[in-house]
UniProtKB/TrEMBL annotation:
Stored InterPro entries: MetI-like, MetI-like_sf
Protein name: ABC transporter permease subunit
Compartments, record wording: Cell membrane
Keyword Cell membrane: yes
Family: Belongs to the binding-protein-dependent transport system permease family.
Domain ABC transmembrane type-1, first and last residues per copy: 108-304
Record field: transmembrane: 35-52, 108-131, 143-162, 182-202, 242-264, 284-307
Sequence segments annotated as region (Disordered): 1-27
Membrane topology qualifier: Multi-pass membrane protein
Keyword tags: Cell membrane, Membrane, Transmembrane, Transmembrane helix, Transport
PROSITE patterns in the cross-refs: ABC_TM1
Domain of life: Bacteria
């Protein structure tokens, strides 16, 4: 495609903002199909759960002394309707106790706030590293191997260190809180896919397009804004979704590791201790974590809708 044709296509897309924001019928159909497939997937998981509970052995499936499928007792696998009913009951028998679903929603909201902050930190660090590596080839050779190597360090090993370092920090009247340690730990997982995906996207424009802007005496910043950032969107959006999922996982794991109360991770640990006496209750925070992940992915999907004019086809993260 010639430069003139490319420029004409860009001008046609930007001339009418209303037309650019209109969703074509085939996109609406595809979106509806994906929603239906998601609902069917959840339904299929529920059917598979109840089917295995009905036909599976009480002690699970054991092969060569190793249990490869779980037990089907009511303690290990409660019925789905028992879990649903338990959500509508108080957490404890104490007077004024919240309903289980309310307590789970509060914990999920707390964790969602921490995960959102960790996502912002991770995305900011990942984009900064990607810009640095794209700008300087030496930086890419020096930094990228360490970025990859960083993901081999177990998250649970970092949690006590970050908490210990953070407890020694204070800026005036502001002291370091445990939730800040959780946000930093979770951002450690979130920055990696953004750094790699953004770097691929920033390097994706053809050399002829970069040479064209250079022939117009465009600066590096102008080339970045007008060419490289728009071209990186198909690579960046999958990376942002993966970063959102990593932020949620990192938040839950970090809450468990450092013992932060009020979040969904700590609730999973506390309710698991009483699983033998109240099996359906222990599954409530697990469902809360699932909803938390779906909300994080949905938020990034909304961002993708705002940038759909640049989405000519997404690349896997």
């Amino acid at each position: 495609m010639s430069e003139h044709t490319t420029a004409t296509a860009v001008a046609e897309r930007t001339a009418d903002p209303a037309a650019a924001l209109t969703t074509p019928p085939h996109e609406r159909t595809g979106r509806t199909r994906r929603v239906l497939m998601g609902v069917l997937g959840v339904f299929a998981v529920g059917v598979a759960w109840e089917a295995y509970k009905f036909i599976g052995p009480d002690d699970g499936v054991v092969v060569a002394g190793v249990r490869i499928l779980p037990r089907t007792t009511d303690i290990a696998m409660p019925h789905l309707w028992d879990m649903a009913v338990r959500l509508t009951e108080p957490v404890t028998r104490a007077e004024g106790a919240d309903l289980l679903w309310v307590a789970t929603a509060k914990a999920a909201a707390f964790s969602l706030g921490v995960a959102a902050l960790s996502w912002v930190i991770g995305v900011s660090v990942g984009l900064a590293l990607a810009l640095l590596m794209q700008r300087l080839r030496t930086a890419e050779s020096a930094v990228l191997p360490w970025v990859v190597l960083s993901q081999t360090v177990p998250l649970i090993a970092l949690a006590p260190l970050v908490r210990n370092w953070g407890s020694r920090l204070s800026v005036g009247p502001i002291s370091w809180e445990n939730w800040m340690s959780v946000a930093v730990i979770a951002s450690y997982l979130a920055f990696f896919p953004v750094a790699v995906g953004a770097l691929r996207g920033l390097k994706s424009p053809d050399a002829i397009h970069a040479d064209l802007l250079r022939s117009y005496a465009a600066s590096w910043w102008q080339t970045l804004i007008r060419l490289r950032l728009p071209a990186s969107v198909p690579y960046l959006l999958p990376a942002l979704r993966l970063a959102a999922a990593n932020a949620v996982i990192g938040t839950v794991v970090a809450e468990v590791s450092i013992g932060l109360r009020g979040g969904i991770g700590r609730m999973i640990l506390e309710f698991a201790q009483s699983a033998a006496g109240d099996p359906p209750k222990s599954w409530a925070p697990i469902f809360g974590a699932i909803v938390l992940g779906l909300l994080a992915a949905g938020a990034v999907a909304l961002l993708g809708l705002a940038l759909r004019r640049y989405r000519r086809g997404e690349e896997p993260a």
